[in-house]
Specification:
This protein is mainly α. Helix content is 86%, strand content 0%. The two termini are 26 Å apart.
Length: 195
């Protein structure tokens, strides 16, 4: 989590840009609302939720960056083992991002299933790695402060996955209404994909 100053500035600038675009896009969608039909209103509602999720993901990214800066200022760093664990988690989250982005315009049952498989993989990694971190703490290989940063990172990773999953979940609900047209089946299927 050690970052070069240029990278830090780039992430901060992107976070500010996302906040600005979220506000402006929301204003635009609000202006459209009075003159649209029911179907378009549903689409706009999805865009509202999408904008919120993007903005929240940006917030969690900034939190991770801020904690990275705090670690650097305190001259503390994760062990190589912890860094390797984060790298593996990053690879999974990056794939979740790819599926979520593709699913917004091209939603498929396979995309839903692939997302669920990767999410389960992330959950298993979180369980395994947090246990390993706990063992490092017990053995004195990790300080309480570093352990706190480690745990906090996974809290943010979880939140990012939740916001990414909202797009997938929204599609799942829509598909089940179309396929089964029954409220009970909709609830069952939706619960399967809630984070």
């Amino acid at each position: 989590m050690e970052q070069k100053s240029e990278f830090i500035e780039e992430i901060s600038a992107r976070e500010d840009a996302i906040d600005f675009l979220n506000i402006e896009a929301t204003k635009f969608l609000v202006k459209l609302t009075p003159s649209i039909n029911e179907k378009t209103a549903e689409d706009i509602s999805k865009y509202f939720h999408l904008l919120n999720d993007i903005e929240r993901i940006s917030d969690h990214t900034k939190i991770i960056l801020d904690e990275s800066n705090e670690m650097r200022n305190k001259n503390i760093k994760f062990s190589q083992e912890a860094i390797e664990e984060f790298n593996k988690v990053y690879e999974v989250i990056e794939k979740l991002f790819d599926i979520a982005i593709k699913s917004f315009d091209n939603k498929t049952q396979k995309g839903i299933e692939d997302y669920a498989v990767l999410l389960e993989k992330f959950k298993n990694m979180e369980k395994e790695y947090t246990q390993k971190n706990f063992e490092r703490l017990k053995q004195g290989k990790c300080s309480m402060e570093l352990g706190s940063f480690y745990t906090s990172s996974f809290t943010d990773f979880n939140s990012v996955c939740s916001h990414l999953g909202n797009n997938i979940n929204s599609f799942q609900v829509e598909e089940e209404i179309h396929r089964n047209n029954t409220f009970d089946n909709l609830i069952i299927k939706k619960d399967m994909f809630l984070l």
